[in-house]
Specification:
Layout lengths: L1 E6 L2 E4 L4 E9 L6 E7 L6 E7 L5 E3 L7 E6 L4 E6 L8 E8 L8 H4 L7 E2 L3 E6 L1
Parallel strand pairs: 2-11
Antiparallel strand pairs: 1-3, 3-8, 4-5, 4-9, 5-6, 7-8, 9-10, 9-11
């Protein structure tokens, strides 16, 4: 079992920044990769970013490239999502997820799929005002 707890959400004006955190506990040694997803009201959950355990491989959805940065601190079992130049369309509940299943070569398409993840956090809300 892996427990994930997100934090750092809030209300910010367009152009502002937020840093989300996802603290993992439990079988963290079994986690191959972590991902961030988001879900806006009335929309499906969508992929935002993913990072492999070694921190070398990262992957982003096109809409956040150049604005968001995913990173991890393995000593703290925490993954971060630094969000800059926020836009109203970034408003959503943000969820982190853990993959304990796939240890093969890094695959962006695999990690962009919600079904690839084994555990999910409860989410943190991000609201960007215009």
């Amino acid at each position: 079992q892996v427990q994930l707890v997100e934090s750092g959400g809030g209300l910010v004006q367009a152009g502002g920044s937020l840093r989300l955190s996802c603290a993992a506990s439990g079988r963290t040694f079994s986690v191959y990769a972590m991902g961030w997803f988001r879900q806006a009201p009335g929309k499906e959950r969508e992929f935002v970013a993913a990072i492999r355990r070694n921190g070398v491989y990262t992957y982003y959805t096109d809409s956040v490239k150049g604005r968001f940065t995913i990173s991890r601190d393995n000593a703290k079992n925490t993954v971060y999502l630094q969000m800059n130049s926020l836009k109203p369309e970034d408003t959503a509940d943000y969820y982190c997820a853990a993959d304990l299943s796939y240890g093969g070569p890094f695959s962006g398409s695999y990690y962009a799929t919600a079904g690839s993840y084994d555990y999910w956090g409860q989410g943190t809300q991000v609201t960007v005002s215009s």
